[in-house]
Write a structure and sequence with these properties.
Number of strands: 5
Order of helices and strands: EEHEHEHHEH
Helix content: 40-55%
Strand content: 15-25%
Strand order of the largest sheet: 1-2-3-4-5
Distance between the termini: 28 Å
């Protein structure tokens, strides 16, 4: 399956295929924002994120997340990131704070995203 724009809970979402290209640069993130075709959100499997994203010292997560905020496109990172969370209390705090806000969410799957969008 390719990345596809779908309406989910009344919101236009670019749903990214887990087998798509890795997001390893800020330009890759900008390409996803562009591919959303003016949509309101991008659902990105965590497996497509370069490992640097989960190492907050690299600054990559902050750069990527800031691009989505700047362009007013919500980012939902989907999948199991428990191994990354176990290794970093800073990442735990980031996930907790992000999930309280409305711009970047860390969620287990698409049904969780649907519930979040419908709320």
């Amino acid at each position: 399956m390719a990345d596809v724009v779908e309406e989910r809970a009344g919101v236009q979402v670019l749903v990214c295929d887990s087998d798509g290209p890795e997001v390893s640069t800020v330009q890759d993130a900008l390409d996803l924002i562009g591919a959303s075709y003016g949509g309101e959100a991008v659902a990105l499997p965590a497996a497509r994120l370069d490992a640097r994203f989960f190492d907050l010292r690299s600054g990559f997560a902050g750069e990527v997340m800031q691009k989505f905020v700047n362009y007013r496109v919500r980012l939902a990172i989907l999948g199991d990131i428990s191994a990354h969370l176990a290794a970093s209390s800073a990442l735990q705090a980031l996930v907790r704070e992000s999930n309280r806000a409305n711009h970047v969410w860390f969620l287990p799957d698409l049904p969780a995203l649907d519930a979040r969008l419908a709320a």
